[in-house]
Amino acid sequence: MSLTRFAHYRTSKISGAFSLAYGLGVPMLNHAALAGVAELQVASLFHDDGGLVERLNALAAAPGELEDVRRRMAAYPGFAVDVQLRRYAALAGTAADHTPRVTTSS
Questions:
Q1: Which pTM does this prediction carry?
Q2: Is the predicted pLDDT of residue 88 greater than 70, yes or no?
Q3: Is 30 inside a domain boundary?
Q4: From the CB of residue 79, how many other CB atoms can be counted at a distance below 10 Å?
Q5: Could you give the number of structural domains in the chain?
Q6: Nearest CA to 76 among 28, 32, 41?
């Protein structure tokens, strides 16, 4: 996927997987073509064309690299819940100060 197509997808059709990863502090494995996206630099490890299996094997052998990404994510202010909520609200066209209410059934 070209970066232009990705930019369009990211702003109009993103599935929520990135936001979930950011919020839960789960490192992502993305293609190297996305390495120029600032938030993905913080939250991702990257692989090249044809290098996915090798990258996964390297991570299995040296999982400390995943911990490094988790630490970067935890320290990154852009992944704070309030920041992500404001971004989502802006994308959804709702008021930035809207706080969702969680209700539980009795």
A1: 0.67
A2: yes
A3: yes
A4: 20
A5: 1
A6: 41
- Summarize pLDDT for 31-61 with one digit per residue, the tens: 898 899 899 999 999 999 889 999 999 999 9
Asked if pLDDT for residue 2 goes beyond 70, the answer is no
- For Cα atoms 13, 22, 16, give the angle at the middle one, nearest 5 degrees: 20
Residue 102: pLDDT over 90: no
43 located within any domain: yes
Give CA separation, 81 vs 55, 74, 75, 100, in Å. Answer: 30, 11, 13, 12
Instruction: Show the domain range for 88.
Output: 3-92
Give the tokens for residue 30.
């993305």
> CA–CA separation, 5 vs 1, rounded Å?
6
